[in-house]
């Protein structure tokens, strides 16, 4: 089975940067579509960024477009989420999720595998 572990979260000031990692084991992550979700306190979980298994195309929520970058490193069986110019509204628990479908989508029910989440706090 595919297992996912997120890391890289922490406390950062507004305007700062963090890189989140989603490290996979058990199976090769490159054949899965991977979506990062986040959940802020008191809010529903939302899709942040997705990379498709089909062709590696990436997609970003409007709220993070131009600030976040998603990439695979298949040699490390890891997906990275580079987050720049962080804002307080980016605060939340970030989860990576994987699905064997070929294309991206934000329906949480699609995703069969989830990491435990990593906390990102953006505050001065």
Task: Please provide a written account of the structure.
There is one protein chain. With 124 residues, the chain is mostly beta strands. The chain has strands at 3-7, 10-12, 18-25, 33-39, 46-51, 58-60, 68-73, 78-83, 92-99, 113-114, 118-122. The radius of gyration is 13 Å and the shape is globular. It starts with a strand and ends with a strand.
Percent of residues in helices comes to under 10%
What is the CA–CA distance across the termini?
Answer: 40 Å
Radius of gyration: 13 Å
- Major β-sheet profile: 7 strands, mixed
Mean pLDDT over all positions: 96
* Strand-pairing-aware structural class: mainly beta
Instruction: Tell how many strands the DSSP assignment holds.
Output: 11
Strand content: over 45%
Q: What does the overall shape look like?
A: globular
Number of helices: 0
Order of helices and strands: EEEEEEEEEEE
Regions with little confidence, pLDDT below 50 for 5+ residues? none
In short:
The chain is mainly β and 124 residues long. 0% of the residues lie in helices and 48% in strands.
List the helices and strands and how they pair.
Elements: E1 3-7, E2 10-12, E3 18-25, E4 33-39, E5 46-51, E6 58-60, E7 68-73, E8 78-83, E9 92-99, E10 113-114, E11 118-122
Parallel strand pairs: 2-11
Antiparallel strand pairs: 1-3, 3-8, 4-5, 4-9, 5-6, 7-8, 9-10, 9-11
């Amino acid at each position: 089975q595919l297992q996912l572990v997120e890391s890289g979260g922490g406390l950062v000031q507004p305007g700062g940067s963090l890189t989140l990692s989603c490290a996979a084991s058990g199976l090769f992550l490159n054949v899965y579509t991977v979506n990062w979700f986040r959940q802020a306190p008191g809010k529903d979980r939302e899709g942040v960024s997705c990379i498709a298994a089909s062709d590696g195309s990436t997609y970003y929520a409007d709220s993070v477009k131009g600030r976040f970058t998603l990439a695979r490193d298949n040699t490390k069986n890891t997906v990275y989420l580079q987050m720049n110019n962080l804002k307080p509204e980016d605060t939340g628990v970030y989860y990576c999720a994987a699905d064997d479908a070929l294309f991206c989508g934000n329906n949480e029910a699609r995703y069969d595998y989830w990491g435990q989440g990593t906390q990102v706090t953006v505050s001065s």
